[in-house]
């Protein structure tokens, strides 16, 4: 059975049943999705087709405040920035591997090759079966 988003779900190992519980709020009642939305958005009228300029200014001010807070957190945790510096974009990695005469393929490119191998009339039955097994592995990763 489908459960609402934000519910706590667990598997009872004694009975084997899955149990779901709505999260409790501060006042002991469970918030509905609409109540959580109102708390998050504040007093902005989200049901109207357009917003007033004052509502937009207030929302923009909130966004700027949260951005300032985020910058403050990143200055408190400098390791977060150094971790990003350790990784390079895939395009740069491809260029470096080409210089070494090594062709790097993404999973998508490999999957396209396997599908074309499976659809090829020149492939033998064993090659098609092997392509399906390999394709199953890559699809499972996705």
Silhouette? extended
**Straight-line distance between termini:** 25 Å
Mean pLDDT: 77
Strand order of the largest sheet: 1-2
Low-confidence stretches: none
Percent of residues in helices comes to 55-70%
What pattern of helices and strands is seen along the backbone? Answer: EEHHHHHH
What about the largest sheet? 2 strands, antiparallel
Structural class assignment? mainly alpha
Number of helices: 6
Percent of residues in β-strands: 5-15%
* Total number of strands: 2
Task: Explain the layout of strands and helices.
Elements (H helix, E strand, L loop, with lengths): L7 E4 L6 E4 L11 H9 L11 H24 L2 H8 L3 H10 L7 H13 L5 H17 L1
Antiparallel strand pairs: 1-2
Helix pairs in contact: 5-6
Defining traits:
two-stranded antiparallel sheet, mainly alpha, single chain, 142 residues
Walk me through what this model shows.
- The protein is mainly alpha-helical and 142 residues long.
- Among the domains are: 53-101, no CATH class; 103-141, no CATH class.
- The chain is built from six helices and two strands.
- Strands 1-2 form a two-stranded antiparallel sheet.
- Helix 5 packs antiparallel against helix 6.
- The mean pLDDT is 77.
Question: How would you summarize this macromolecular structure in one to three sentences?
Answer:
GO terms for molecular function: adenyl-nucleotide exchange factor activity. The protein is mainly α.
